[in-house]
Design a protein that fits this description.
Blueprint: H1 2-14, H2 21-28, E1 31-41, E2 47-52, E3 57-59, E4 74-77, E5 83-88, E6 91-97
Antiparallel strand pairs: 1-2, 1-4, 2-3, 4-5, 5-6
Length: about 100
């Protein structure tokens, strides 16, 4: 019986059952940018978006109960961290865990 359980664990591991690609992508991401505009993307089901000064765009899905991201806020995401820091006028406003949905 123990051999069957052990074999099943090896088989599941071989096919990537224990991998978490979403978490790994967040951990490898690194950026520092400022929010230059906010808009609603009508082509993507009215998704709220943030346009950043580095040219990228991200979905504004962050929790409203912690506060709202405003135009001019600075966003900092360090490599090997799941938190994105939000700064307003050089002060840390709050931290957002990117794994929370």
């Amino acid at each position: 019986m123990l051999l069957i359980v052990f074999g099943l664990i090896i088989l599941l591991g071989h096919y990537g059952y224990f991998e978490n690609k979403y978490r790994d992508a967040i951990l490898n991401e690194e950026f520092s940018s400022r929010v230059i505009s906010k808009y609603v993307n009508v082509y993507e089901h009215m998704t709220p978006m943030l346009k950043l000064s580095n040219g990228s765009e991200i979905i504004n899905y962050f929790p409203k109960h912690k506060g709202e991201i405003r135009i001019g806020d600075s966003l900092l995401k360090r490599k090997k961290s799941t938190d994105m820091l939000v700064f307003r006028r050089e002060n840390l406003v709050y931290s957002i865990n990117l794994l929370d949905k």
